[in-house]
Amino acid sequence: MKGQILKFRSDIGVGVIQGEDGRSYRFSRNEILNAEARPALVGEDVDFLVEARHPRAIVLVSGSPWTALGPSNRA
Fold it and tell me: Alpha-carbon distance 2 to 4, whole Å?
């Protein structure tokens, strides 16, 4: 599902996504697969799965699609 991050509290690592279905979903930063790509999350467009009304496997869709793969561990 697509959505947008409406709120995020970096001090506790939780926020709210507004889904394209009009519902609000609470999430924690550790559910974002490419969170290191963006320090400020409010306003970011996301794609995510919903399991039991909770967003899972959240991916920030702005920027390079390669950021979804995580940081490079090359030496």
Answer: 7
Pairing state of beta strands 2-9 and 14-19?
antiparallel
Per the model's pLDDT, the better-predicted residue between 41 and 67 turns out to be 41
8 Å CB contact between 32 and 14: no
Strand partners for 26 = 16
pTM of the model: 0.78
* Sequential DSSP letters for 38-74: -S--TT-EEEEEEETTEEEEEEE-SS-GGGGG-----
CATH says 2-69 is which class?
mainly beta
**DSSP H or E stretch at residue 2:** strand 2-9
pLDDT tens-digit profile of 54-70? 999 999 987 655 555 55
